[in-house]
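We were asked to recover a plausible sequence for a given structure. The inputs and outputs are reproduced exactly as logged, with field labels preserved.

PROBLEM: sequence recovery
POSITIONS: 135
GIVEN STRUCTURE:
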């Protein structure tokens, strides 16, 4: 009978300390470089739509419940809004405007905001909605 000598197998171990350090550094990096979007501005109750899509635009016009029109944190309207938008859109690459209108805002105020954006040279208009709650 022949005796076969077996060598002990080398033990493999992962350097978990280094791995944990790298994961921790990545976590810190992503936390510091991420930005949490927080809408600032007027308190609006947006209309709800199921078929909405996500659109980004450099400029937003807000229409309040009482029909007031706001642009970049100041109350405006009429020719003043057209001039402000024309000035902003002239230097912008993307000539897109979002309109955030409260669901109880008068239709005439929303239409005048849309009209002002078109007169100022906006190529695309989008109405901001929110998704209805549910599954």
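RECOVERED SEQUENCE:
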């Amino acid at each position: 009978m022949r005796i076969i000598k077996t060598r002990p197998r080398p033990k493999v171990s992962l350097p978990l300390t280094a791995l944990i350090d790298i994961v921790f550094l990545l976590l810190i990096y992503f936390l510091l470089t991420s930005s949490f979007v927080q809408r600032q501005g007027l308190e609006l109750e947006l209309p709800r739509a199921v078929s909405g899509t996500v659109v980004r635009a450099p400029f937003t016009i807000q229409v309040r419940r009482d029909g007031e029109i706001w642009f970049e944190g100041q109350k405006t309207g009429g020719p003043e809004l057209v001039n402000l938008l024309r000035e902003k859109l002239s230097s912008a690459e993307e000539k897109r405007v979002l309109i955030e209108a409260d669901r109880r805002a008068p239709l005439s105020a929303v239409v005048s905001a849309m009209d002002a954006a078109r007169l100022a040279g906006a190529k695309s208009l989008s109405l901001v909605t929110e998704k209805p709650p549910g599954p």
